[in-house]
Amino acid sequence: MTIEDIMWKTTAAVWESDSLEQAARTLAEQGLAGAIACDSEGGMVGVVAVEDVLFGLVQGRKTVREVMRLPQPLPAHARLEEVEFGGSPLRAVVDESGRLVGLLTKEQYLAAYAKASRLRLKQLDAMFNAAHNGILSIDAKGRITSINPAAERMARTTKEEALGRFLTDVVVPSGLLDVVRTGQGCTEKYRVGKRVYITNRSPIIDGGKVVGAIGVFQDISEIEFISSELETVKRIANELQTVMDGAGDGIAITNRRGAITRQNQKWAALFPDAGQGRIPAPLDQVVRQALDRCQPCSMLHQGPETGNALIVSAVPIIEEGGRSERVVVYVKDMTEMEQLRAELEETKRLLHTLSRQEGDELIYRASAMAHVIAIARQAAAVDVTVLLTGESGTGKEELANFIWRQSARSQKPFVKVNCGAIPETLMESELFGYEPGAFTGAAKKGKKGYFEQADGGTIFLDEISEIPLHLQVKLLRVLQSMEIMRLGAEAPKRIDVRVIAATNKPLEELVAAGRFRADLFYRLNVMPIAIPSLRDRKEDIPLLVDHYRKRFAEKYQKPLVFTDRALAAMMDYHWPGNVRELVNAIERMFVTSASPIVDEDHVTKWLHLEPLSAANPVSVGGIVPLKQAVADVERQLIIEALRRARTYRRAAKLLGVDASTLVRKARKYGIESQGGEEDGFYIASRD
Fold this sequence. Notes:
With 687 residues, the chain is of the alpha/beta class. The longest helix has 26 residues, at 221-246.
């Protein structure tokens, strides 16, 4: 409620120079209890009430000025409980701009305040009686002055019996008396019989003096009991889980629907791929038997996840009435120790055969590869241009990385550029950069080329044979003078770059064919390093297989073990794709293998191998020209390879040649073929 709600909305006024008789007449005629007193200019200078006028007439005063009071205006939007009216019988009321909007008498103020107080008391009384917590108050002498229904129920008394009686005659706790004595509130938990209560006690202070105390209390017996039971259950559950996790067997508790309600860490390790929160399908049988028979059952299970032999036992939990709704399942892994022993032997064998230098980060044992690494170390020690040659997939980029790491420039940039992947129209700008506005669409700030990015460090130019002839001249200039010319630049820029180039094509033949500049070839061929193909370093295959087996086992969270027969099959394969093909094949085995053991049959299937049989050896029936004999044998081999492999790509792998070479020779010998599933051809007839 605001002042505006209860004021007398009037702007009646008298002049300060008016006589008291005239002011009394004005107030009486308009039925006003008071008015504003104004000066000659109409400004408010005070307020005058009826009693002020009458008192002035009795005392013989003459004008309003002699009896008026200072205006002391009240804000119209102030709340009633925020206003102190004071001793004046009349107050002016103004709005936010200070303009007079009404008058308020003390009678009006007191009547409204009393009404608001009564309403507030009713609200507090309703809250007091509706409160769920018990509320009780006493006076300074310890006599009960109020008690709500909740407190009546807890104290087993009535309001009529309790009011006016001493505190301890009604309730047992006497803490409110201490609050009256000390003036200090407190919170306390106490027990009365089997019931537990918590109370908050506060003093009642009036004029700086303690005149009583009030206590709010709640029965928390049920809450205390539930809390105690919950803590006990949590402790037991924690102890149970600790015992389960410490067990060497996999343990799970399941219901009749196969949903797991609890399991230990060993169980999760044994069945990592099982459905979320479900018993694996192969174990359903023993669980159902245990539930139906209400007695323990066991079975032997070959786990597809690990290939291990598992002993599974299901023990039903018998409830009241002899019925069972839950089962404890125990799984013992009988092959774990054997697997660990096998892995230990494998580790010892690998450690015994591993001969790569510490810090090489390259995997090799073959003498041919050891020779390459020795040359690479020598090349890394001096700032010389290196040309790496070898078939695709032999690891030219890895060897370039090795040279960079071993060199004095290892802390400077190492920029890798695949020349075969850059469009010819963009190659110059990508290699040497361009100035701002050098061509339409150029960046406003220009761009650094790869050579500038490698300044101070090393640049690796892979597939160097793919650089067009007109750019080979510029590359030669860079190698000779260590200067580059950006597109659109007016002057060359000095750089300091170590160049490592690589190619899988014979540059000598390209030079002879006019497709590669001889002077650039000689400039690149300062330190040539020929990387052997994988078929020329087959003793490295077991090391490579083990290295990538561990990498993919971690990546796919799936252990795979290669048998000796599988390794032998992989060593017999000619690997036309070299190490890259080997890595891809191993990853494919991890993705598609359903068994943790990789044997010779798996390798043959994944690599599409079907070794050419020696059941039909070449026979000599007579003397024919050697050239014709070679052609006849070649034709027979192509026909047999196509018959077995069904596609040119697979047949080419069997014969150790490119698919394009095989297609050309098949056409040469008139071997009819037609569209196939993979590479477009398969053998249709021999003649």
